[in-house]
Amino acid sequence: MNKQRLYFLSLVGLTCLALAAAIAYFVGKGQSESALTAMKAEVEALKAGEREAAVVKRVSQQMEEIAYQQKEISDRQRDKAEESSRLAIQMRDRAEQESRSAHEAEGKAVKALEEAKTQRAYAEEQQKIAVEERDRATLSKTIADTLTYRTQAKTLGLTSRNQRETGDTILADLLAYASWYFLDKYKGNTYYTETFRALSMATLASKSYFMERRGAVNALSIVPPEAGQKGKDGCVAASNYGELEICWSAGGKTPLLHDNTYDFRDVWAGKQAVYALSKEGTLCVVNYNAQMQRTVTLPPDSYFKMIRTDSNTLLLAARQSLCWYTFSSCAVSAPVHLQKTLSAICKREHTLCLFFADGSYAEMDGTGKLTEKTPLVKRVVTAAHYAPDLQCLFLGLKEGPVQLVNKYNRQVEILEAHKAKPISITTVGPIMVSGAYDKAIYIWKLDNLLFNTGLNFWQEMETAKTQKRTTAQPQNRVPGEWLSPVEYIYRSWTLSTLGDPRTGCVWIGTATGEVVRQNVSVDNMAQQVHNKLKRNFTDVEWSRFMGASIPYVQFKE
User: Fold this and answer.
1) What is the per-residue pLDDT across 485-511, written as a single tens digit (0 to 9) for each?
2) At how many degrees (to 10) do helices 193-203 and 169-185 cross?
C-alpha cells in the first residue's frame, strides 16, 4: 500500500514535473520568441539609428562645412565691418569737424543775416522816406500846378470882362470859356464870381425888366403853365406901388394891375388868378385878363407873407397875427394873435415855422396849434426858406450870414456872405440864392460845399449829430474856397428872389423896380459859350494871357 502510494506519489510527482517542464518549455519558448522579437526590433532600431546617425553625421559634416563657410564669411564680414567702422569713425570725426565748422559758419551767417536785416530795414526806411518825400514833392507840385491853373482861371474871368468892355467880344468869349475850362479841369470851384460874371455876360444870361412905375419889387411868383401863354414861361412881379406885371422869359411884359393905393408885399400866381397881399391888409384877386375879381379886407395888421398851406387855403401872415383865406368860400378866418412880432415864417413839410424878432421860435401844426420851441438858431432870423428836395432849412440871420439846418434840426456850418440882413432866400435844384440889403445876391452851388468838418453838403444833411472830421479832405481842396459864393452886385437892394424849377433860372426883384431873370447854371453857360466860339487863341494871345508854362489847348474844334 505504501509502495503503491509511494508509486502513485512518484507518478504524480513526475507528472507534475513533466507538466512543469512542459509549462517551463512553452513559457521559455514564448519568452525566447518575445525576446527574439524584441531583439530583432532592437536590432532593427539600432540599424535605423545607425542609418540615422550616419545621416546625422553626414548632415553634421555638411553643417560643419557650412559653419566653416559661414565662419569664413562672418570673418570676412567682420573684417569689412571693422573696416567700415573705422571708415565710419573717420567720417564721424570728419562730420563732427564739418559740423563744428558749419555751426561756426551758421553763427557767422546769423550775424550776417541780422546785419543784412538791419541794413535792409534801414534801406526800406530810407526808401519809404524817399517815396514819401517824392510823393510829397509830387503832391506839392500837383497842388502848386492846380492852384496856379485855378488862379490863372480866375484872372481870365476878370480879363474877359475887360476885353468885352473894349469891344473885343470874340476874345472875351475865349477868355470866359478858358476861365471855366481850367477851373473845371482842375477841380476848382467853377462858381467863382469873375468866372460866373464873364460867362453871364458872354451868354446874355441876365435879362432885365423894369416895372412901369419903378416900385420896389417885394415879391415874385412863377406863372403856372396852365395860366400863361402857350409855350411861354413867366413870372408875376408885385411892387410897393401897387403894380402887378408878368415878365415873360422870352421877353416882354403883361401888366395886370397898377394901383398905388396898394403896397404889395407878397404875391401868389394860381391857375385862374393872381393873389396879391397888400401891407395894410387887403388881398387883391386879379385874373390874367387884368381884371380885378375881388378885394378882400383882412383884419388890421402889417402883412408881409402868403403861404399855400393846402389846395384850398392861403395863410396870410402879418407881423403879429395869422389868418387864412379859403379859395372855395372866398372868406377869411378870424385872426390868431401872436404875443411877439414875427420876423420870418415858412412852411416845413406839414409844419409852419415861426421866427420872432426877439430870437424866439414856435411851430404850428396842421390843426392850428401853436407851440413855442427851443430856437433852431440863437440869432434873429430875417428870412426863411425850406427846400423839400434838399430837406434843408435855410435861415438868413440878421447880421448877414445864412444858416443851414438839416432834417434832424442840426445846425450845419454857417455860410458867411451878406454884409446886411438877408431879405429873401430861394433854391433851384442844388443851387441856393439869397438877397439882402447890401445890393447883392449870393449864389452857392450846394454840391460844391465842403465844410470844416470834412463833410460835404449831402453828408451834412444826413448827419444827426455833430461829428469830427470823418471824411479825408482832398489835398487840393481848401474848405474856404468851397464856401465862397458868387457875389452878383445890382444897382439897388435885392428884395426878392425866386427859383424857377422849369427853366433852372432865378428871378430877382430889386428896390428900384428892376426884375432880373438870371441863369445860374455855370455849366450851361459854359456850353453856350463853347458853341458860339469863333476861333482858338493865337500863339501870341496864349503867351500873353496864359503864359508859356501852360500847354496850349484848342477850344474850338
Assistant:
1) 899 888 899 999 999 999 999 999 999
2) 140
